[in-house]
Design brief:
The protein is of the alpha+beta class and 76 residues long. The chain has a domain at 29-53 and 61-74. 29% of the residues lie in helices and 8% in strands. It contains two helices and two strands. It has helices at 29-38, 64-75, and strands spanning 41-43, 49-51. The protein has a two-stranded antiparallel ribbon with strand order 1-2. A hairpin with a 5-residue loop joins strand 1 and strand 2 (49-51). The longest helix has 12 residues, at 64-75. The termini are close together. The relative contact order is 0.26. Mean pLDDT is 79; it is low at 14-19.
């Protein structure tokens, strides 16, 4: 996986309660549009699987596990 395959801004699974603890996950860039349109599932860098339902706003919280994996990939 190369850095260009990753989305710079993460996407999230929609919570049903508007939970303040909701975090956004990093996913492969080429899967986002397909998931948003077709409702297919995507796999985040942390292993979480979900359909893309939201776009994050600047400053949105990022999944700590996704962030750690992303940082490791950037070093390679």
């Amino acid at each position: 996986m190369s850095n260009t395959d990753l989305l710079e801004k993460p996407d999230v699974r929609e919570g049903d309660t508007g939970n303040a603890n909701e975090v956004f996950h990093y996913v492969r860039k080429n899967k986002i549009a397909e998931s948003a349109v077709m409702g297919t599932m995507v796999e985040a860098l942390c292993g979480e699987v979900f359909p893309v339902t939201k776009t994050p706003k600047p400053g949105s919280p990022v999944c700590p596990a996704c962030k750690e994996v992303y940082e490791q990939l950037r070093k390679e």
